[in-house]
Amino acid sequence: MRPLVDPVWVLLLLLSLGTFSIPKNARLHKIFITTSKFVLSFLIFLSTGVATFIFDAILANESSPPKDWKPEFIFVLGGGYEMGATEAQDFLGTESIRRVNSASEVWLKYPKAKVVFSGQQPGTEDDRAASRHGELSAVHATLIGLEKSRIIIESASENTRQHPIEALKVRGVTKNSPIAIVTSDFHLRRASGAFKKYFNNLESFGTNDAASSISWLDFVPLASHLNDNTYRIKEFVGIMIYSFG
């Protein structure tokens, strides 16, 4: 289902229709041309860092906990990993590394909290254990200072909607437990919204990779910006879907 909400194929389809379809109806032809121009402009916009800056300003809503607030659990939402030819060659994706790094920093502030690496990677069931993502995250976390004894792996959840449901099944967790969630900046709004449906004492922490200013290079269309912004468009789609259910 995730590829179906990727904006690129939809925009390219519309652009192709406007470019290669020549309807006999003059009014319909004009509509196609206008649509193509809009789609091309939007693709260019999505390929800039300016779009990333705007999207992050909307999506990155990290909270500011009170000074006396202390979480009992820190939930680190899975960001994916890459499978190698063997398990020894598996490695965490960029977003997962950022989330584990940020979670380790949060844990240093609250060392009595337990850190829960949450989520499995759908599509890897036939080749890897569901806990594989959590295991890779735990290894990376211990290398940068997190105590192994404070780590819990929750490998049942497959998506953002399931994370809080499975979180409540972790021993010691209740809806009133003070908990923190750690995820990518662009994923904060959707993740926080999902958890707030189940938890009453929640604070959210991002990876702090969102741009704080714009440079001239952000106005230059680049493939890397387009890749970043497809994730953000998916977040907006996810927020809309979650608002109805």
Layout of secondary structure:
Blueprint: H1 7-20, H2 26-46, H3 49-59, E1 73-77, E2 81-82, E3 91-92, H4 94-109, E4 114-118, H5 132-143, E5 151-154, H6 162-167, E6 179-182, H7 188-196, E7 202-205, H8 223-242
Parallel strand pairs: 1-4, 1-6, 4-5, 6-7
Antiparallel strand pairs: 2-3
Helical/strand content category: alpha/beta
**What proportion strand?**
5-15%
Distance between the termini: 17 Å
Shape: elongated
Number of helices: 8
The proportion of residues forming helix, as a percent range, comes to 40-55%
Tell me the total number of β-strands: 7
Average the pLDDT over all residues and give the rounded result.
91
Evaluate the radius of gyration.
21 Å
Low-confidence stretches: none
Which strand order does the major sheet show? 5-4-1-6-7
Question: What does this protein look like?
Answer:
This protein has 245 residues and is α/β, with parallel strands linked by helices. The protein is built from eight helices and seven strands. The chain has helices spanning 7-20, 26-46, 49-59, 94-109, 132-143, 162-167, 188-196, 223-242, and strands spanning 73-77, 81-82, 91-92, 114-118, 151-154, 179-182, 202-205. α5 (132-143) links the parallel β4 and β5. The radius of gyration is 21 Å and the shape is elongated. The model has no long low-confidence stretch (mean pLDDT 91).
Can you give keywords for this protein?
245 residues; alpha/beta; two-stranded antiparallel sheet; 7 strands; 44% helix
